[in-house]
Design brief:
The chain is mainly α. It has a domain of 61 residues. The protein has seven helices and five strands; from the N terminus they run βααβααβαβαβα. The chain has a three-stranded mixed beta sheet. Strands 2-3 form a two-stranded parallel ribbon. The two termini are 21 Å apart.
Length: 201
């Protein structure tokens, strides 16, 4: 079994990378100004160089952001078989109900995951039919309501999710204070870590 930990306000990898890149650009510019290599004064003869440098860095930043957004939007291939592959069944059910009946269950993270995963969900849809989708969604709703009630009484609770699969309950019940520990088979945790990165806290 493998373990993933989720804590308050997990930042995305994209946000972390862009923040680091922007901080690097800021340090570079302030270092150049501090070393009198460029000047912030408009009357300075070096201001043109500073403006050209700023434009070049701005262009580089936009390119960098574009590349990150492209990577974030890329589809993730699923290499699971047998028992492990069944984790896609409840995920599909939550996405289907959240898309068509979000007053019952509103799992935006499931919708996001289905969009990102490179998998033919039509075979699950045919096998489950509406009754199976509704039963899976009802189970997800119960798994959401019961932890939320407990967290209401114990706002700093730790939650252990056994056989987590691609469960997204944490994102619907997180109050910014709880910690959630997800347990599952090694291949499943490897996939989960790729699609739902754990927080640093």
């Amino acid at each position: 079994m493998k373990l993933l930990k989720y804590g308050p306000n997990p930042p995305s990898l994209l946000a972390k990378s862009l923040k680091t890149y922007k901080e690097g650009i800021y340090r570079m510019l302030t270092g150049l100004v501090g070393g009198n290599m460029v000047s912030t004064l408009l009357e300075s003869p070096t201001v043109y160089a500073a403006v050209k440098l700023g434009n070049a860095l701005g262009t580089a930043l936009k390119k960098h952001e574009s590349e990150f957004h492209h990577l974030e939007g890329a589809k993730s291939k699923i290499d699971l078989v047998g028992l492990e592959e069944t984790l896609l069944i409840p995920l599909w059910a939550r996405e289907k109900i959240s898309t068509e009946y979000n007053s019952f269950l509103n799992d935006t993270k499931a919708i996001e995951l289905v969009e990102r995963i490179d998998y033919d969900f039509s075979k699950i849809d045919k096998a489950l039919r509406f009754e199976g989708i509704l039963l899976n969604a009802a189970r997800a709703k119960q798994f959401e309501d019961k932890p939320r009630a407990h967290i209401g009484d114990h706002p700093h609770a730790s939650v252990i999710n056994l056989g987590a699969g691609l469960d997204t309950t944490f994102y619907r019940v997180d109050n910014g204070l709880i910690h959630c520990y997800d347990l599952d088979l090694p291949n499943v945790i490897k996939l989960r870590r790729r699609l739902l990165p754990e927080s640093d806290t």
